[in-house]
Amino acid sequence: MSADSPDFEQIKAQTADVYDRQAAAWDARRANLNGENIWLDRMFSDLPQQCDVLDLGCGTGRPLAAYILNQGHRLTGLDQSTQMIALARTRFPLATWHLMDMCVITLTEQFDAVLSWDGFFHLSPTEQRAALPAIASRVRDAGTLLLTIGRDHGLATGTVNGETVYHASLSHTEYTDILIRAGFESVTITPNDQDVLGRTVLLARNKRTAP
């Protein structure tokens, strides 16, 4: 590693602490939707009128929880940040919130829709490969998975209120292969979507459990 290269291992180890320190500032900046409703509506388009939804890396719940709950769906959120979950419980007491690592999901129930918006990419590539099949197993038959991912395979960094956080991504082909093997009928990936500030969005539909 050169002197100018990021120490990704150290950055990753500190990412959860960054979110604890910056929970209030992050929450204040995330009060409003930035086009996420477009993708949430697509996620819900083939699902029951009232869905059970699992949000991985839910943060404080804003702005996604408000939108999901206002559509009449039931929401469970989990996050690794103590401060984020505390704010979520205060803001949205009708939802269910868990302090939990998405790499080790101990929930036994399944959900019509599982999403991770700006959360899943904080896992390392190794963690993502292990977590994706487990996450897929939490999706009911005919259910949907929605993720934001990286533009290509590799490591990167982002910032939360000026502090550096860890990002990682598999290749788009690998995401697709894993999820098709996990039982999804289709996987679409939309790179650099300007409707959501240039994010790359993955939508996997119609989960089928092998007989």
Give an account of the 3D structure.
It comes from Shimia abyssi. This is SAM-dependent methyltransferase. Keywords: Methyltransferase, S-adenosyl-L-methionine, Transferase. This protein is α/β, with parallel strands linked by helices and 211 residues long. It has one domain: Rossmann fold, CATH 3.40.50.150. The chain is 33% helix and 31% strand. The protein has 7 helices and 9 strands, in the order αααβαβαββαβββαββ. The strands form 2 sheets. A 7-stranded mixed sheet has the order 3-2-1-4-5-9-8, sandwiched between helices. Strands 6-7 form a two-stranded antiparallel sheet. The chain starts with 7 loop residues before the first helix and ends with a strand. 38% of the residues are buried.
Task: Give a quick rundown of the structure.
This protein has 7 helices and 9 strands; from the N terminus they run αααβαβαββαβββαββ. It has 211 residues and is an alpha/beta fold.
Task: Based on the model shown, name its key terms.
7 helices, 211 residues, alpha/beta, two-stranded antiparallel sheet, seven-stranded mixed sheet
Poorly predicted runs of 5 or more residues: none
CATH superfamily caption: Vaccinia Virus protein VP39
Number of strands: 9
Radius of gyration: 16 Å
Approximately what portion of the residues adopt beta-strand conformation?
25-35%
Helicity range:
25-40%
Task: Give the topology string: H per helix, E per strand.
Answer: HHHEHEHEEHEEEHEE
Question: What is the quaternary state of this protein?
Answer: single chain
Q: Which topology does CATH recognise?
A: Rossmann fold
- List the domain count as a whole number: 1
Provide the structure class.
alpha/beta
From the N-terminal CA to the C-terminal CA, the straight-line distance is 48 Å
**If classified by CATH, what would the architecture be?**
3-Layer(aba) Sandwich
Mean pLDDT figure: 95
